[in-house]
Amino acid sequence: MTAASIPASIQQMMQPGFYPHPVQEPIQLIQTHISYVLLTGEYAYKVKKPMNFGFLNYSTLEARKHFCQEELRLNQRGAAELYLEVLPITKTEQQYQLGGTGEPVEYVLKMRQFPQDMLLINMFSQGKVDEKLMTNLGRVVAEYHKKAAINDYIRNFGEVAQVRQAFDENYEQSEKYIGKAQTQNQFDETKAYTDKFFAEKESLFKSRMAGDFIRECHGDLYMQNICLWHDKILLFDCIEFNEPFRFVDVMYDVAFAVMDFEARGRKDLGNIFLNTYLEQTGDWEGLQVYPLYLSRQAYVRAKVNSFLLDDPGVPAAVKEESAKTAANYYRQAWEYTKPRQGKLILMSGLSGAGKSTVAKQLARQMGAIHVRSDAVRKHLAGIPLEQRGGDEIYTTEWHQKTYQRLLDLGLLLASEGFTVILDAKYDRTALRQEAIAQAESRQIPLQILHCTAPVEVLRQRLQQRTGDIADATVDLLESQQATAEPFADTEKPYVTTIDTTQPVETQLKS
């Protein structure tokens, strides 16, 4: 962007003398399609552009003041450490002042600046986003949603008419980019998918409302808006300008984060985050609306990048890059609408046999949903995952309830096109045969992975187990061995045996 096309107020904000505190020179200006952000060292200052996109209207000074205050208020939920205050910018003659006594001509949000290399997108590009960080992010987002506001007003935004409004708006606003960043076929098929989804699944949206899954969410949860500061994950820059983008299904947020990792070629990281979130919340049924939101979020990123093509202040080279980025997102949005073949994988084996380790590894490779019996049991009992379950949730009745819930979830999600790994002992013939019969009747492919290891290895693993939600202890091994039932001849064609003391990959290929 040329200096001439930057407003005079922003040009002055790029001068060190504008601030009542020391700055780190040169002051860095970051520009998005809706704001200017100035990095001064200890503090960052955000000014909203006087734009009106329909879904966002900052066209008046009063609106910009209001939305600065809303941004400050709403971001206390996920990043209170970063958001400090809203200040006026005043003008005397040709000089702009921060917090002066004259008539305000603009408003600015003052934030604490964090090191840019701690922004998740920058950590990602440096190869510093790992399994531990993704697991923690899943927990943080689950907790954020657990505390998110919910009331009748918010809940009503889950109605089909409300939800589809933003989708229809996306198509209207992006139609002019057909031939520039997306094809006519992609546009038509993506829109047909969402139209059909809304037409056929009204009861699903009602169940999400009834289950209190429409909450005051973040609304823009992708790597650009997540940082690690003082070893704490912060979710910042939530949507303040549009209630329908914030009063949404929790899966809207989850899909945004996963879509972002997948857009950057790391489906495995998205899978770790997704499975952690689902295990923490127990909201596996939410996956029924998840593909809709995956497509929507990719489409939004495509649209936002397309908008830059119309901005006269954006250089040609940046526009060219934006067109490529938009095209990739449009393609991704379209690919999410394609039907997929679901599959069921049953883990089997004694406690300590390595079932969960293998299942996690497989889930990452296959993009599978990993459902652990330990989590299902505790969600059914209404107790925290980290809390040890008492004997009362390990009765025969509770085993039946847990395995029934596991199978119900597996069949539901596999019929929706997901590969689902049901991670439990599956040590009884009746449990396995019920799963086989149900899968066959629905024409869902099924596989059983039987994990084994020498007893001394099982003992050692159980003795060393820490920080896991599983309650099994070493003293249960003997009874498990005594009651485990061998595979019947009718089951054997489904079974692959894995020695978990050896590399797993080669055994799965054989």
TrEMBL record:
Q: Which domain of life is it from?
A: Bacteria
Any coiled-coil regions, as ranges = none
Q: Which UniProt keywords apply?
A: ATP-binding, Kinase, Nucleotide-binding, Transferase
Does the keyword Signal belong to this entry?
no
Is Kinase tagged as a keyword? yes
Which InterPro entries does the UniProt record give?
Cell-binding_unc_protein, Kinase-like_dom_sf, P-loop_NTPase, Therm_gnt_kin
Pathway per its UniProt entry is:
Carbohydrate acid metabolism
Q: What class of enzyme is it?
A: transferase
Q: Which GO terms describe its molecular function?
A: ATP binding; gluconokinase activity
Check the record and name the Gene3D superfamilies matching this protein: P-loop containing nucleotide triphosphate hydrolases (3.40.50.300)
The Gene Ontology biological process annotation of the record reads: carbohydrate metabolic process
Q: Name one Pfam family in it.
A: AAA_33
Name the chemical reaction catalysed here.
Answer: D-gluconate + ATP = 6-phospho-D-gluconate + ADP + H(+)
- Entry EC no(s): 2.7.1.12
Family of this protein: Belongs to the gluconokinase GntK/GntV family.
Protein name per Swiss-Prot or TrEMBL: gluconokinase
Source organism phylogeny? Bacteria, Bacillati, Cyanobacteriota, Cyanophyceae, Chroococcidiopsidales
